[in-house]
What we know:
By secondary structure, the protein is of the alpha/beta class.
Amino acid sequence: MGGILAFVGILTLLGAGCQRTTGSTDATESQDNIPKIEVAATVFPVYDMVRNVGKEHVQTHLILSPGVSPHIFEPTPSILKKLANTKLVFAIGVGLDNWVDDIVKSGSGAKKITLERNITLHEEEEHEEEEEEASEDEHGEFNPHYWLSPANAIAMVQSIEEELSALDPTNATAYKQNAQNYIAELRAKDTQWKTSITSLDNKNIVTFHDAFGYFAEHFGLSVLATFEEFPGKEPTPQYLARLQEDVKEHNVKTMYLEPQLAVGAIKSFAKDQNVELGILDPLGGVDGRNSYIELIDYNVQTIVSTNK
């Protein structure tokens, strides 16, 4: 008996260590103490979808800690070690989280699953500096922020359910039911969100970078402009001059920051243009945005309250 208790204690300590290293995890043992199937997700919105489908049958690890941008993240050896037993790694793909390839190649034998299938991707907008910046542009041909459309989230949940069911056929019925319940919740919330957005007279927004195109399309908004042409690269004076003209022409009252990216330059620009600053969050995983639904709800309510 003592040996069994010691074994369970070791599992508990390992789970706690994984939570500290890789961000939020659903690491509780199932009621019958049968070890769960271990999977991972690169970013918080995907992590939340996976845990809603897998529930008690799956231990889900979050790789990218909340508050860190996927554009600048590099996995550490400690993260690779803690994810050694994962069977699947769910990723966005489309150039956003290519660093997950290091985890897949680390010897765990995990299978990388990108979730863009059954989703119509947006082509990246062309910029005047595109040719000279092309070697540094992380995204490539398509915009990777497709999860910010609730319609796309539903397609992602369906893909997650299919992959978990294929990996663990014994619990396929549970995964399917969990996915159906979660999709019903997403659809109900989406009706509320669209009603809130419809009430806006001004549906033009200026965002920090090109993360909110899918979100805007879904909700009937228009991304008038972005502050950064490329993530992590400050805009040129010529680009800022054109942005200033757009802000004045369309009577923009608020520009939106992102909590994961440095924002010093946009603060100076907004002050010079007498424009307020709000925060739109593409990733969440923090208080008040600790689920995908809370994340979208936060962004909708932010736009409704600041874009009147």
